[in-house]
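Support reply, case 0932

Customer input (verbatim):
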Amino acid sequence: MRTLLLTAFFCVSIVRAEVRIGIVGTDTSHVVAFTRVLNDAANPDHIPGFRVVSAVKGGSPDIPSSASRVEEYAGEIHSKWNVELVPDIPSLAGKVDAILLESVDGRAHLRQARQTFALHKPVFIDKPLASTLADAREIARLAEAEHVAWFSSSSLRFGELVQSAKIPDAVGVTVWGPGPVEEHHELDLSWYGIHPVEMLFTLMGPGCETVTRLSGGTDSSGTDVIACRWKDGRLGTVRVLRPNGGYGAVSFGAKEIRYGKTDVPPFSYVLLLKQIARFFETGTPPVANAETLEIMAFMDAAQRSKQAGGQPMKLR
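Our regenerated output:
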């Protein structure tokens, strides 16, 4: 009898229930990419133990890249991966154990987060966390009030391009990447410039104090250079390229200069998904919420500097 009990305990201990995931917002290609990796056991990048089971469409009619894709991506994950489509966020209650808030429109995130946090499930909020600093801070406040674990991150943070450029004692960092803007987002860097900004913080860590942004060209073409000073005197530079451009990173140390590897794709959804999966299991975010809020404050300061013709601005 004792042997049978031990055997049963051992079996229970090694069999983990599958984590059921719900998606909020089906208007970004991330929805299809994430679902493919999590739900397709034949995929070489498959992460076992997690499955997308339900989704809320969402969508923003005044953003073409949202309105034109929401039905397409919703239909694809439903037909290919048997993901149930539900009418609203409260309908996810009882169906999921964790949530991917994927809406491409950062303006929608506060409203959706308010409903999502009410379900008391861990939440990954895809970039951008919000379209304004005020919304970002309110999201953090609501999560704390509801005792909900959350994090937000660009996929570039975990990619080899950035990780290979890390220097423990870096005195300065220069990064660059595409920076097309979207007219409805108050912080124009939050739309796509979030990627190089997050690269900078991955390599420098938190502690930025002052931001100066110089704009060249127009909002549809050209480049912006953002110079920033950390509280300890270190200097960083972000160059955003419009409408598009490649990614890069260089770290300057006391004894070496390290360039990010560019012979591999600059980002990987799989590496981000592995971090998300670990977060869903542990409740511990791989990126501190305070750092994410500082990134939003950085973009807010950069926007104010741009509006002031390149005057230095302190982070609020």
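We compared this against your earlier run and they match. Two observations from our side: The first helix runs from residue 2 to 14. The longest strand covers residues 208-217. Please reopen the case if you see a mismatch on your end.
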